[in-house]
Amino acid sequence: MTTTTATATRARPPAAGGGARSHAVRSAVFRYVPLVILALLFLSPLVFMLVTSFKTRQESAAVPPTWVPHDPTTQAYDQVLNASGTPVLQWFANSMVAATANALLVVVTAALAAYPLARMEFRGKRVVFGLVVATLFVPPVILVIPNYLIVGDLHWLDTLMAVIVPTAASAFGVFFLRQFFLSLPRELEEAGRLDGANVFQIFWRIVLPLSKPVLIITFIFELQASSSDLMRPLIYLRDTELFTLPRGLKAVLDRFGQGGEMQWEIVLAASALATIPMVIIFFCFQRFFVQGIATTGSKG
Fold first, then answer.
1. Could you count the other beta carbons within 10 Å of the beta carbon of residue 129?
2. Among 1, 10, 66, 107, which residue is least crowded by beta carbons within 10 Å?
C-alpha cells in the first residue's frame, strides 16, 4: 500500500507540469496568432506592391490578380529609372534634403519650446500650451492660401525652401517632447544650478543628452511626415527637377496612367522605390521608437 501511494505521489508532478505546458502553449497561441494575422494584413499591400512591380504589363492588369509573377522582370524599374522626365533618383535626393532639413528644424524649435513649457514657471504657461495643442485640431488645408501668399512674398515658390520652412514649427513635436521633459528628475537640474550652470547650460548639457532617444523619435516622425507629404510640393513646385518623391509619383501616375490604360507595374515600381528608404530607416532606428514611446508616456 505504501509503495502504491508513493508511486502515485511521484506520478502527479509530470501531469501538473504537462498541464502547465499545455496552458502556456494555448496562451502563446492566443497571444501571437492575432498579432500574426494583423501583421499579414498590414504587410499584404506592401508585398503586393513589390510583387506587382516585377510583373509584365499584361500580368499586372490581369483579373484576378496573382501573388507570384509567372515571368518576373525588372522592366518596370528600367523604365522608371531611365525614362526622360522621371528623374526618380533626383526626386529621392530632393526629398531627403527637404525632409532632413525640415525634421532638424522641427526638433530644434520643438525642444526650445517644450522645455520652458515643461520645466519653467511663467504667467500664461497653461494658456500657451493650450493654444499649441489646439493647433493640432486645425485642418492643414485651411492654411494653404495664407502659406501660399507668404511663400510667394518671400520669393520661395518653386524652391525647396517652400517645403522646408512653413512647417518648421510642429505642435506635435512640442507636445511630444514636453511629455518627456516632465518625466526627468528635477534633482538633475538642481545639481546643475548648484554647480553654477544657467538655464541654457542645464538645457544643453543635462537635458538634451538625456533626451537623445526622444529627439531621435521626433526627428524620424517628422522625417517620415515631410518625406511623404504631397500637398505642399504639389502647390509650390513646378520644376520637374525640384520635385520630391511624392510629387514625382504624382507625375509618374499622370504620365503612365493616362489613355485609359493604367500601367500598374511602372506606377508600383516607382512607389516601391519611394517606400524602401523609409522602411530601411525604420528598421535601423527601431529600438529608438520603442524606447522613446515607452519613456514619453510616463508622466502627463
1. 19
2. 1
* Nearest alpha carbon to residue 118 among 138, 136, 132, 104: 132
Domains and CATH numbers, the chain: 2-75 (no CATH), 81-296 (1.10.3720.10)
Nearest-angstrom CA–CA distance, 114 and 93: 31
Positive or negative torsion for Cα 115, 116, 120, 124: negative
Global confidence as pTM: 0.76
**R_g (Cα) of the chain, nearest Å:** 27
For residues 61 and 263, give the distance between their C-alpha atoms in angstroms, rounded to a whole number.
8
CA dist 122 → 116, 118, 119, 126, 127 (Å)? 9, 11, 10, 9, 11
Phi, psi of 211 (to 5 degrees): -100, 10
pLDDT one-digit tens code per residue, 75-124: 888 877 777 777 888 888 899 899 999 999 999 999 999 999 998 888 98
pLDDT tens string 227-284:
888 888 999 998 888 998 888 888 877 777 665 567 778 888 888 887 877 777 777 7
First to last CA, the chain: 66
Cell reading at 124: 500664461
Residues near 203 by beta carbon (within 8 Å), at least 6 away in sequence: 115
Cell of 258: 493616362
What separation in angstroms does the CA of 248 have from each of 44, 171, 241? 24, 28, 9
Distances (CA, A) of 217 to 166, 177, 212: 21, 10, 9
